[in-house]
């Protein structure tokens, strides 16, 4: 089963290396890791998307807890949570295709953020599945580059009113 | 980095006013003294020149090993003998990488250590400077925690935290990497009184609900057994364990790391389990209906990785300070997280007895019917006989370190340990070269104790250069070489599993160990027969300084019983001596 872990860590040099070394060494698979500042100075929030059965997930959490720089581990899969990812995608687009592409991305509430002579860049946010779908729709036009941030997430109960 | 002249006193005619500013390296040593470190092991080099310059002042005993691996295993032996963190210092680059085996050894066995490495100055870091190695990165998977000191003002806090982390909770090695510019930088010195580490709060006492459940299952059990591991030794829970076992009437198996955690002379003791375990211990694990693991981690040398055959009829209770151990290898019916001394103390209030009389009769019957045995010989010295002789002549009153291999298993089998911290061995990593330097550290830690280093002729050659330290500091360790002229344990596997295709296990070309030892100014004996062995050992024991006895034993002896890898505990090979 897929799990989204929210891990509060000390904002220390190498903390990402400690976490990823641990996950790698213990043979836990990682779909994505994203790190950024948290609400508290000195702490970062790491969001890890991983797969595993209940027993594996218990181990992942316990092993993460053993790292001194890990303050808190939360499995967001057990709570209502908001998950988002940011996608930037550069698509081949001559003048003729631009209108059509704009039409394709619109229902995704994606935005065209850059236009060149032969291509354009689209920005979209959302859940992973939505972004995957958008990529598939754009594929026929010719995808030149993709950058994705990986999932970040917050539990709904923790941060009320923030969608 | 500009060196400033130390300011002592002043021109104004006042007598020596106390220094108020210190260099990073002086601060480091003051911190070590604050932590009551009485000996450090190490090896100098460019990046630690400032530290060694401060050591020159005196005030802290330093032993110059002959290889950083020797230094770190000595620090480890010191830690295992006392429970206090061992301290080692090495220079950057090769000095630091020479510590890696020792750090991993300590991590695998949860040994408290503070490992101090120098590094190149910060402005050079990342440039592949001379003798630069990313020791933080290299050791990340094998430390409990690590620090790179980037500012001298952090140093006291970091040292304080390092000692705290190393020695509390589940102990382990902590690395402090100190760039040369930090060692040279100056600051005032205040040693913090306490630590506050937000992400570190080991659980120390057991959950009362789980203890209540424990009492229930004990009262119901018919075939209970205790599996006691290194955690009992670490926690100093030996008395509590005896009370627990006696009150509940539950027989006790001790893992390799648990040896000494429960007296090897106790009527409830069944020996060691697993690959070279006793019949009684392994069969008790097969048939038990209640298995209580205490500070043991159910590793594959105990379970043989065959969980389908391990304690399949049992409810498993698991007491451990590390929550991550619970459920890691076996499914647990009752998890009890906490320091096992506290856990047992709490459990020992109001303990029920288990209904184990018939079971005890059965398992002790196994112990009598299937004892450990070997075929003795009058013309060849047998290694098991030598170990037995050590046990009998010392009455078991010794600290024994081992290296890794057959002799290690024979010590575990034939020397019965009465006290915790009297058996010192690299269990988890199985590090050859560990035993002799560890004995030096253990001897320095317990000067009144007889310390014996039982080692193989292979492993001894990995760190025998530390004879120089034994000689110079007159550390009266008695080294027992079980000299079978080959890499015995590997030879055994090749005999049993590889059709006697003996590949690269012949140790021909080894030195004459007596001459080698004497070259260091240490006394040595050789023994090829029982008579020689008895005399040589008696003389070595009587000799007040360090001594080496080279016992030439039968080269083709195997360790039995044995469970082949991948087999269950029910498939023990009892050996050629016994059906
Ligand atoms: C550093 C290291 N290298 C290799 C091994 C693999 N190994 C395990 S036991 C053994 C043989 C040890 O031979 P010896 O020291 O003579 O002891 P014996 O088994 O003969 O008692 C070897 C090579 C090891 N444990 N550690």
Automatic annotation (TrEMBL), chain A:
Task: Output the Pfam families linked to this UniProt entry.
Answer: ACT_AHAS_ss, ALS_ss_C
| Signal peptide region | none
**E.C. number(s) listed in UniProt:** 2.2.1.6
GO cellular component terms? cytosol
Gene Ontology terms: biological process = isoleucine biosynthetic process; L-valine biosynthetic process
Question: Tell me, what does this protein do in biology?
Answer: Catalyzes the conversion of 2 pyruvate molecules into acetolactate in the first common step of the biosynthetic pathway of the branched-amino acids such as leucine, isoleucine, and valine.
User: At the top level of its lineage, which domain of life is listed?
Assistant: Bacteria
- What is the protein name for this chain? Acetolactate synthase small subunit
What this protein catalyses is: 2 pyruvate + H(+) = (2S)-2-acetolactate + CO2
From TrEMBL, chain B:
**Cofactor(s) named in the record:** thiamine diphosphate; Mg(2+)
What are the annotated GO cellular component locations? Answer: acetolactate synthase complex
Task: For this entry, list what GO says about its biological process.
Answer: isoleucine biosynthetic process; L-valine biosynthetic process
Q: Name one GO molecular function term.
A: flavin adenine dinucleotide binding
Arranged from A to Z, the UniProt key words for this protein are:
Amino-acid biosynthesis, Branched-chain amino acid biosynthesis, FAD, Flavoprotein, Magnesium, Metal-binding, Thiamine pyrophosphate, Transferase
Q: Which catalysed reactions does the entry list for this protein?
A: 2 pyruvate + H(+) = (2S)-2-acetolactate + CO2
- Asked if the Swiss-Prot or TrEMBL record annotates the protein with the keyword Zinc, the reply is no
Pathway given for this chain reads:
Amino-acid biosynthesis; L-isoleucine biosynthesis; L-isoleucine from 2-oxobutanoate: step 1/4; Amino-acid biosynthesis; L-valine biosynthesis; L-valine from pyruvate: step 1/4
What's its EC?
2.2.1.6
What residues does the Thiamine pyrophosphate enzyme central domain cover? 212-346
Thiamine pyrophosphate enzyme N-terminal TPP-binding domain residues are 23-137
Q: How is the cofactor bound?
A: Binds 1 thiamine pyrophosphate per subunit. Binds 1 Mg(2+) ion per subunit.
- Keyword presence, Flavoprotein: yes
Q: Where is the Thiamine pyrophosphate enzyme TPP-binding domain?
A: 403-551
Pfam families in alphabetical order: TPP_enzyme_C (PF02775), TPP_enzyme_M (PF00205), TPP_enzyme_N (PF02776)
Entry-linked InterPro entries: Acetolactate_synth_lsu (IPR012846), AHAS_TPP (IPR039368), DHS-like_NAD/FAD-binding_dom (IPR029035), THDP-binding (IPR029061), Thiamin_PyroP_enz_cen_dom (IPR012000), Thiamin_PyroP_enz_TPP-bd_dom (IPR012001), TPP-bd_CS (IPR000399), TPP_enz (IPR045229)
Signal peptide positions on this chain: none
Q: What's the family? A: Belongs to the TPP enzyme family.
Q: What is this protein called?
A: Acetolactate synthase
